[in-house]
Write a structure and sequence with these properties.
InterPro entries: TPR-like_helical_dom_sf. This is Tetratricopeptide repeat protein. By secondary structure, this protein is an alpha+beta fold. The chain contains 37 helices and ten strands. About 45% of the residues are buried.
Length: about 750
């Protein structure tokens, strides 16, 4: 969707700012960028928050805006399918409400639903997509920014429906309609046209169409380059121009974070696998297996079937017979979710036949010596895929072979297969109650990774008391059931389960904001802890203000603390504390470290933030950036740490100032006055910021920033000080928000803002 359709966003931001919703206004304009640039952690937090606030404020268009971009971030680059269909349907219902339907972006809800259906099962939902898109396209003018996205989805649906000839014709007519409306087609429309041409065998025309689209604007600009590269490589591979296709194909490290490109990229790799420039390795097989699991979680039914079949063919090319057979089983199992399976059954049969006809690689030695050979193998160059095949004949009988075989299966992405083998050995035909703790741990891990929770609970019921609760605590922790983790972990600790149980309890307690218990459970075995566990204990003890435990942890690490009791308040140098910003991003705030895991923020923050200068913050002492090797760089290096929580707010209030920059002498005097009062002040403008001269309109160097004052300072005192400190400047400074707050000289400040173009 063309972002221009949201031209009203700027006005909405201004209205929200004037109403005091500064944080919401700051976040608003960034949502499209978060969706397109892949800043999903921000998007997943901010979009629902904005939608909720919009609902509370009675702003339905704004609510639609937030919900739409959140959905785009899910069904676009992340390619979520069935898991997003319900939300797409709800968005369309919302868009059809009387107070929303006139929003210029409302038609985009239909496009979003069509894309969610396509992600789930493109061919299976093809007719539904056409039925839903057709009437909306008929009502939308070609000049409407929503039009290119709608027709792109229509072309894609025609191709998925097996009507590629119609798709080609439809795309051509859509481009003509856009041209007649003096509008350009989008790159996405050109790329879909090329896919349709390829589907009807017009390969040269497909390449021409894609090349013609190269200069078209993209609805999703950041994705254009890699998506174009994958589509170009696919067409070139079909044309037999292998070297050019290899050059055009983006590397795995480029597409690895873009699920939307995975299936087509894998298909191209399969076509080019015979080239010496394409490396078909076990690492590729492991990545494709991870991608299959991703689409299983996201409801990408068609994608996971296609990837399983492609991965199976690539495995055959590597002589990975065991893997090809498992992938054939998966593809057959997954095909049951498809609304239109097509030729999947035939392709599964062909893959199994290829596996039967493929000679497995020769083993390095006799079966009785396989474990020894495995242990002697080079850990960097050994091929775990081959070792799975070589260990298979002795796995399930020999315990040492089973350990290596099943854990390697889990490493390669087949934990369920490994769990089956281990289960038969330890549970069905063995004594799980008397099994080695490592074997129980290995099997537990496999069952967790395979998401076989009921089976794990069944196994736990056969274990001794301590091991039973430890296994259940590990399961609950993996599923982020924190209260249950604590309960089971406490039982495990009482039964003597050891340090792992304490770590589980500690981590879960921290998630439950019970930092006192999280620190205590580690402090009880302080002598047995390594540095990582000690630091974790220190952070939680700090958050709980358990200063005795903090001091014990500091002593264990070798960090000197001057005071002997009470809160730790020392000056330990400058650090950068990384805190969340209202737009879902991050802010780096210069701070003074006051303890092992505490810092006091030193810079004033804009109004509407959840923190300000003077706040005492708990931070994670793990460095976010490495210390530079260069001694000169080390001198200026201020270490960054992630904030954990606000321990004690300072109660400071920030006030904004803006205007023409004074002379260097005046500015020095101004900053000294602020420092004498102990009022943190920070300039947020840079050397490029200018204001307009009130008479000549010539640019003047400008300055804007914030000053923060402690809770015992009134707004009137701030106004009086600013007035005194700046009265002799050649150009006045404005602090309009403060003036409005106390209703003093509001008109003067409004005049300054207007005259200087602030």
């Amino acid at each position: 969707m063309d972002v221009d359709i949201w031209a009203w966003v700027g006005e909405t931001q201004q209205q929200l700012s004037e109403a005091g919703n500064v944080g919401l206004a700051m976040a608003l304009g960034d949502l499209p960028a978060q969706a397109y640039e892949g800043r999903y952690p921000q998007l997943d937090v901010m979009a629902p928050a904005i939608a909720q606030q919009a609902e509370a404020l009675g702003l339905p268009w704004l609510e639609f805006y937030a919900r739409y971009w959140h959905l785009v971030g899910r069904i676009g680059d992340r390619a979520q399918g069935a898991v997003a269909v319900g939300d797409a349907e709800e968005l369309l219902t919302f868009a059809q409400r009387e107070e929303v339907r006139d929003c210029p972006a409302a038609p985009a809800a239909v496009e979003a639903l069509a894309l969610a259906w396509a992600n789930a099962d493109g061919p299976g939902y093809a007719e539904q997509r056409l039925d839903k898109l057709g009437p909306v396209i008929d009502e939308v003018e070609a000049g409407n920014p929503a039009y290119p996205g709608l027709v792109t989805q229509y072309v894609a649906a025609l191709t998925d429906a097996g009507r590629a000839d119609e798709a080609v014709t439809y795309a051509e007519s859509a481009v003509e309609r856009l041209r007649a409306a003096d509008k350009q087609a989008s790159w996405e429309l050109g790329a879909e046209s090329a896919r349709a041409l390829l589907a009807v065998g017009r390969r040269e025309d497909a390449l021409t169409a894609l090349q013609a689209a190269a200069d078209f604007p993209a609805d999703d600009p950041p994705a254009k380059e890699y998506r174009d590269g994958v589509r170009r490589a696919r067409i070139l591979a079909e044309l037999g121009r292998t070297a050019e296709a290899v050059d055009a194909l983006p590397d795995l490290d480029v597409v690895g974070n873009h699920p939307r490109a995975w299936v087509e990229w894998a298909q191209v790799v399969l076509k080019l696998a015979g080239s010496s420039q394409i490396t078909n390795t076990w690492q590729l097989g492991r990545v494709l297996r991870q991608w299959i699991d991703y689409f299983s979680m996201m409801g990408g039914y068609q994608s996971r079937v296609e990837l399983a079949l492609v991965a199976g063919d690539l495995a055959i090319a590597r002589q990975g017979v065991w893997q090809a057979r498992l992938l054939a089983d998966l593809a057959e199992q997954f095909s049951g979710e498809l609304r239109a399976p097509g030729d999947v059954a035939e392709r599964v049969t062909a893959l199994r036949a290829a596996a039967d006809a493929t000679q497995e690689p020769a083993a390095p030695g006799p079966e009785a010596e396989r474990v020894a050979y495995f242990d002697a193998a080079d850990g960097f160059n050994a091929d775990p895929e081959k070792w799975v095949g070589w260990l298979a004949p002795v796995s399930g009988d020999d315990l040492e072979a089973t350990r290596r075989h099943t854990t390697t299966l889990g490493f390669l992405g087949y934990p369920a297969t490994g769990a089956d083998i281990y289960w038969k050995l330890l549970v069905d035909s063995g004594d799980i109650a008397g099994a080695d703790a490592d074997d129980v741990a290995y099997l537990t891990t496999l069952l967790i990774e395979a998401r076989q929770d009921e089976r794990l609970e069944q196994m736990a019921g056969l274990l001794p008391h301590g091991a039973q609760h430890l296994a259940l605590a590990r399961l609950h922790s993996a599923r982020e059931r924190w209260a249950e983790t604590v309960a089971e972990g406490e039982h495990a600790i009482a039964a003597g389960a050891g340090l792992e149980a304490r770590r589980l309890v500690s981590g879960a307690a921290q998630q439950l904001d019970n930092n006192q218990r999280g620190a205590q459970v580690l402090a009880e075995v302080l002598d047995d802890l390594g540095d990582e566990d000690v630091w974790r204990m220190v952070v939680m003890a700090t958050a709980a203000e358990d200063w005795d435990t903090v001091r014990k942890g500091a002593a264990k690490i070798g960090m000197p603390i001057q005071s002997a009791e009470g809160p730790i308040e020392e000056e330990m140098g400058l650090i950068r504390v990384i805190l969340p910003a209202p737009d879902g991003g991050q802010r780096q705030v210069l701070s003074i470290r006051t303890g092992p895991a505490t810092a006091r923020l030193a810079l004033p923050q804009p109004r509407g933030m959840d923190y300000n200068a003077g706040d005492l913050v708990v931070f994670d002492p793990q460095l976010l950036e490495p210390i530079p090797d260069d001694p000169k760089e080390q001198e200026n290096f201020v270490p960054p740490f992630a904030a954990v929580s606000i321990l004690r707010p300072g109660g400071y209030t920030s006030y904004f100032f803006d205007g023409a920059a004074p002379s260097e002498e005046d500015w020095t005097e101004f900053t000294e006055v602020m420092a004498e009062r102990g009022w943190p002040m920070w300039v947020y403008s840079d050397e490029n910021y200018t204001v307009s001269h009130p008479t000549s309109s010539d640019p003047l160097p400008g300055v804007f920033g914030w000053v923060a004052v402690p809770p015992d300072v009134s707004a009137s005192e701030v106004d009086a000080l600013l007035d005194d400190a700046t009265e002799r400047w050649s150009h006045p400074l404005a602090w309009l928000d403060l003036a409005r707050e106390i209703d003093v000289e509001v008109e003067r400040h409004e005049r300054i803002v207007k005259e200087y173009g602030l």
